[in-house]
Amino acid sequence: MDVTIRPATAEDEDAVVALWRACGLTVSYNDPAADFRFARGRGASDVLVGADAAGRVVASVMVGHDGHRGWLYYVAADPESRGRGLGRRMIAAAEDWLRARGVAKVHLLVRETNTRVVGFYEQLGFEVAPRVMMSKWLTGAP
Ligand SMILES: CC(C)(COP(=O)(O)OP(=O)(O)OC[C@H]1O[C@@H](n2cnc3c(N)ncnc32)[C@H](O)[C@@H]1OP(=O)(O)O)[C@@H](O)C(=O)NCCC(=O)NCCS
């Protein structure tokens, strides 16, 4: 599929949030528009989008690093454009983004309700890493 992958602009916000909603990536405790604004265009994070020939946003990945490892979030391909290599290209672009910043390893989290996507990542060279992930809200539990 003919897509141009580029950093998202502020004007992409509505389209990107709509894509995330269409892909089932939004949850009640995260405001996706706030997530987009917080990550986009920063030194250590960005949102990359894939735009089709008409300029429509059809894929995304949020990429960043924490000073040590890289992280991916909001990996999304438009439901009507799946199975055509979009997801693979977005992951490759995010990996390039991280390599360019000297990051040696990339991590991502898969929700327990979304384990069907594990095969996609394995296809791209990721492996399941047995760890106990711990977390804590710093702003009060939602
Ligand atoms: C995950 C997602 C981004 C994949 O996008 P896509 O454009 O359909 O993926 P691609 O076409 O690039 O697939 C890349 C490879 O993975 C394979 N693949 C895709 N989905 C797969 C799955 N669920 N299980 C196993 N393999 C899968 C493809 O067959 C392809 O293999 P090939 O290159 O050998 O043919 C898309 O399904 C999506 O947006 N899902 C909903 C959002 C989501 O769950 N995101 C991840 C959150 S952790």
Automatic annotation (TrEMBL):
Residue span, N-acetyltransferase domain: 3-142
What is the main EC category here? transferase
- What's the Enzyme Commission number for this chain? 2.3.1.-
* Alphabetized SUPFAM superfamilies for the sequence: Acyl-CoA N-acyltransferases (Nat)
- Entry-linked InterPro entries: Acyl_CoA_acyltransferase (IPR016181), Bact_Acetyltransf (IPR050832), GNAT_dom (IPR000182)
Q: Which GO terms describe its molecular function?
A: acyltransferase activity
User: What highest taxon heads this organism's lineage?
Assistant: Bacteria
Recorded hits in CDD domains, A to Z, give: NAT_SF (cd04301)
Keywords in alphabetical order, please: Acyltransferase, Transferase
The protein's matches in Gene3D superfamilies, at most eight in alphabetical order, are given as: 3.40.630.30
Q: Which NCBIfam families match?
A: PRK03624.1
Protein name (database record): GNAT family acetyltransferase
Q: Which organism is it from?
A: Rhodoplanes tepidamans (Rhodoplanes cryptolactis)
